[in-house]
Design a protein that fits this description.
The complex is a heterodimer of chains A (362) and B (178). Chain A has helices spanning 2-25, 44-56, 73-88, 92-103, 118-152, 170-192, 201-235, 240-252, 256-269, 274-287, 294-306, 311-323, 327-340, 348-361. Chain A is an all-alpha fold and 362 residues long. The longest helix of chain B is centred in the N-terminal third of the chain and has 27 residues, at 3-29. The chains are: A mainly alpha (362), B alpha/beta (178).
Chain lengths: 362, 178
């Protein structure tokens, strides 16, 4: 029984080790390159050197891509610089040193060993040594027992693992040690290899394209709806709903001018409607890039005089207080508003986020 | 079973945890945070820079040695550069400012200077952005303060906000007795 168990443990450890090594040698996807044909050097050997250097250098604008993988302008410039220096006859190390002198160690994907990075570089070796140490100490403890057993039973002496009777923790220690080693190798193979490619942008490319197409479609639909609403106001200029619809569609397109015009037309038909006035105030704030301007404040005062519970106006007056630096007042207004709103109000999540943000600031 | 076989790994783990914790705190405490880009040129001589000015006259930056200067990389196409124009105007009363127009067209630079004011004692033109790379510039705007010997005392990436103006730059200017 014990022998069986130990053998199993050995096998499991072995499988872990082999899989870690297998991952290490699995060929990985070719990374997407941002280098254009005209950037390339004519001499293929020189170009290969340029690629090797480019892979080592971080694009400082995007930070998690190498300069070879990035389309950022600074990355293009750095690629140009690398190639220019190669052509003059600089060595690879000289070029990397040149860039490092200017941008610091941060520009290197492989951080150099220094007082602040020795732990980073040493950690795998320390952990590996740790695993080996566990196995060695476990083995040493059972050595005398092995000889004891050998006298009584010759056939089983070769199996060191069978000495479990002398130290029942032996299999556990063994798996701990081997597990540590496998873990270190595994983490290295999956995350730590220097030849690992950048974040797989290529794999996400189709998602990005789909998302873009989707956004385009939504926008096209919004524009069609806007045009329809516009036509409706022409055929039904006396219907307040057509103007409100146009204002709504215009706001979706950030067309503040049309939105304010449509709300103005609607207000002419219902001059005493406080919700409508509040909508107009909100549109004015949006048109002013979020600033609660003085004309808006005057309107808010009028609205709240007539209807002190008008939610939109209350929210905006809270925003006005916030913009004046009176955060406590803003918080009070918004918290009162939060309590008065029904559970399913569509603005609730936005309001909660605002309150959380202001609380974090205070 | 032996107690040591358990204590040794435990002790080893504690030692590693202590070192890791210490290293982590050192990192949190240290210069580099996510917002602050590392500045390799700090306390080093500014890179030699010879660039044409707006009249295509070659100007060597080292000619300004003898007095502290502020070097500002800017571009007409860069919105934060407009935002920091008032800050530069204030600074120009205390220190000579050398502007370096980054990847910008002459006429655009001229227009920018007439529109947002010209705080610069001299404007150099870095057409292809290669001088910027030699200064370790990430992107415009970026600001450097050099002492009279041409050593970089301060580097700030991004627009000069009120906080940067009143704290970081002020501190260096006071050290320079300006």
């Amino acid at each position: 029984m014990t022998r069986l168990l130990s053998t199993r443990l050995y096998l499991i450890t072995l499988v872990l080790l082999i899989s870690a090594i297998a991952v290490h040698f699995t060929p990985h996807q070719q990374q997407a390159m941002a280098i254009t044909a005209e950037e390339k050097l004519d001499d293929p050997a020189m170009e290969a050197r340029a690629r090797n250097i480019g892979r080592e250098l971080r694009c400082l604008v995007c930070q998690n891509q190498s300069i070879d993988d990035s389309d950022a302008e600074l990355a293009v410039d750095l690629r140009k610089l690398v190639r220019e220096r190669l052509v003059i006859g600089d060595s690879d190390d000289e070029i990397i040193a040149f860039v490092r002198e200017r941008y610091g160690d941060f520009v290197l994907f492989k951080p150099p060993v220094s007082s602040s990075t020795w732990l980073l570089w040493g950690a795998p070796i320390i952990a590996l040594g740790f695993g080996v140490l566990i196995i060695i100490t476990a083995r040493r403890k059972i050595q005398p027992d092995v000889t004891d057993i050998s006298i009584s039973n010759k056939t089983e002496t070769s199996d060191v693992a069978n000495a479990k009777s002398s130290d029942r923790f032996y299999p556990m220690k063994l798996i701990m040690g081997a597990g540590t080693i496998a873990l270190v190798l595994g983490v290295y193979a999956i995350l730590g290899r220097p030849d690992l490619p950048d974040q797989p942008l290529a794999a996400r490319q189709t998602d990005i394209a789909a998302e873009r197409a989707n956004l385009k479609q939504i926008r096209a639909a919004t524009i069609t709806a806007f045009q329809k609403a516009q036509e409706a106001t022409q055929t039904n200029p006396d219907d307040i709903r057509s103007w409100l619809d146009l204002a709504d569609k215009a706001s979706l397109l950030n067309d503040f001018e049309t939105e304010l015009f449509a709300l103005g037309m609607a207000l002419k038909m219902a001059p005493d409607s406080t919700p409508l006035m509040a909508m107009q105030a909100e549109a004015m704030v949006r048109a002013a890039e979020g600033q609660v301007t003085i004309p808006v404040r005057e309107r808010l005062a009028t609205i709240l005089e007539r209807d002190p519970t008008q939610a939109r106006a209350l929210f905006l007056s809270g925003l006005a207080a916030y913009q004046d630096g009176r955060k406590d007042l803003a918080l009070r207004v918004w918290q009162q508003l939060l309590e008065s709103l029904p559970e399913d109000a569509p603005a609730l999540p936005m309001l909660k986020a605002q309150i959380a943000a202001i609380q974090a600031e205070m | 079973m032996n107690r040591a076989t358990f204590i040794i790994p435990l002790f080893g783990f504690l030692v590693i945890a202590l070192i890791a914790g210490w290293a982590l705190f050192g990192m949190l405490d240290g210069q580099r945070s996510d917002n602050q880009l590392p500045s390799a040129l700090l306390n080093k001589p500014a890179p030699s820079t010879i660039l044409p000015d707006l009249d295509s006259q070659q100007i060597d930056l080292s000619q300004f040695k003898g007095h502290p200067i502020l070097v500002n990389y800017f571009a007409s196409w860069c919105a934060p550069c407009r935002a920091e124009a008032p800050a530069l105007a204030l600074l120009s009363k205390r220190i000579k400012i050398v502007g370096i127009a980054y990847k910008d067209r002459h006429e655009d630079t001229q227009k920018f200077l007439t529109e947002y004011g010209n705080p610069f004692g001299a404007v150099l033109v870095d057409k292809d952005g290669m001088a910027a790379i030699s200064w370790g510039v990430y992107g415009v705007p970026e600001t450097f303060v050099l002492d009279s010997s041409g050593t970089v005392l301060l580097r700030h990436a991004g627009p000069i906000t009120r906080k940067v103006l009143e704290q970081d730059i002020e501190e260096v200017l006071e050290d320079l007795k300006l």
